[in-house]
Amino acid sequence: MPSLKQITTKIKSVRSTRRIMGAMKLIAAVRLQKAQAALMAYRPYSDAYRDVVLNVAALSESEDHPLLRVPEEKTNLHVLFFTSDRGLCGSFNSALIRNMQRYVEEQSEVFGNIKLSFVGRRGRDYFSRNGLTTGKYYTGVNEKNSRKFSEELAAALTEEFRVGESDEIVLAYNHFVSAISQKMTFERLLPLSAQEADDGGAESSSDYIFEPEKERIIGSILPKYVQVRIERAMNESLTSEHAARMTAMENATSNADEVIAKLTLLFNKTRQAIITTELMDIVNGTEAQKGGNE
Amino acid sequence: MAEKLRLKIITPEKLVFDGEVEELVAPGQMGEFGVLPGHVPFLSVLHPGRLRFKTEESGENTLIIHGGLADIKDDTISILTDQSEDPEEVDVAAARKDAEGFQRELDELQDAEPSQREELDKKLRIARARAGE
After folding, report:
1. Is the pTM for the entire model greater than 0.90?
2. In chain A, which end has fewer C-beta atoms inside a 10 angstrom radius, N or C?
């Protein structure tokens, strides 16, 4: 049986861990709230942008712009994988990585060469250990600099697609559904025209007026669209991360509470046992003395 | 006129406006254009400038937009812009000064890269729109 001192030390250490977890939970909750508000505001914009671009793409020929190019062969797949930089967010990263692995296995039957780029340290650490060809790597992305990072990424990715280095670019990120639910999503960023089919019946281009000419519109909105989608994925991923961390810390706090309750019980029991032993000693002692006197 | 237009003004930060309007005038890249109900499908790139629209409740409204896109389809107008501002909240004097500064810079950069000039031109247009010129 552990001594009282050992138990008190243990309780103290669990208490201080609990305090840290509690603080992390609160921080995650505040950041989640902010990120969620930003995401909710960003969604209508990026969705509307997507609608416009898909509409234009459906009305265009693949020759109209390099970004509408339909690769003849599917050889090079480039996946941009969003994870978090830091841990302590439950199964957030491990679930992402597991899905990603399955996806890579599936796609390797279609594409000859798969390249992974990363936003977030966790995904990179895992896949570089496992020897997959890795492309770019970004870390330290947060709500404040997501625009800047997405612009940089968009420029690099569009260029890559334009010169034919990649035949398809996919974003892999956690889609934020609610604070307790996030869903991993694989979204094809480029080529655009392959999405036409599920866009449904677009009007014929003769009905649509473009100002300036269609080619110039495409040239100015397509690169922006790529940036918007990447920024959206960043926001979704960040919000999901905060939500996952909040849930994980919440669980950890209540686990710690349980451990503290158990330890306190053990402490009381031990204390009781010690008192009982001491009492028995005293009673035994006095009984023995009585016997001696008689 | 019974028919109305549905107008949505969306920025990355928020949905600025979503409601019915009778008429809209927007700063297109090829010049200002007006939209009335029954307009043909239309897509235009917008310059930074002033967006004016008329609603039944509040009459004539003006917003400063920092460039963007206008998509008009089935009497629904979506304006996608990086940023929008209420003209009444703008410091006109400062904006005017900015505009002058950008103009001077632009004059000096006659033979700079086109992309650089374009960016400056956009800044200048934003400043002018804010100054109400």
Report:
1. no
2. C
